Amino acid sequence: MASIEGLISAYERFVGGEWARSVAPRERIWFALYEPRDERRLRSRIGAFEEATIRAGHGWLGCDLTDDFARWMASQEYRESYFESPELLTEDLLDDFADSVAASVRRVLESPAAREGSVVAVPGVASLFGFARVSALLDRVAPKVRGRLLIFFPGEHDGANYRLLDARDGWNYLAIPITAQEGGKT
After folding, report:
1. Better-scored residue on pLDDT, 11 or 184
2. Domains in the chain: how many in total?
3. Residue 186 belongs to some domain of the structure
4. Does 58 score more than 90 pLDDT?
């Protein structure tokens, strides 16, 4: 639990600091990085992140992606065929799913409550693994970020290179990492 508590402390310092106003949309994205094995611990402590955000004078909105694939799959006419033969989930179908996820996040980002001084928190990105890339999601939603987009990211980073679940080749991204070890950088 120490690593999640350290991440909460780092986030408290981070969210309470000065927010640069003239930054590129991609630099308005924060990654709260933690070990994949700590997913359940993090989920049980998301309220602490919300409390820290509110104490710092910012708004908080959530957009949990955990069930997005299940909802999308349930809406598919040929879902039974996909369960029987997963290889039928073509790249075009998975692009449709990625569009659906991006639309979910954009709805929250475009809501009146998602002001310049608000944090939109996104847990559940691990559930995208194998179906959609986080990097593609962020490319689709970054222009809509007015405040900050907080991605709870179970994985690792080396500089600007991020790896979801420590299992896939990473990608280079301008998001700002917040870690228990470093306390984040503003």
Report:
1. 11
2. 1
3. no
4. yes
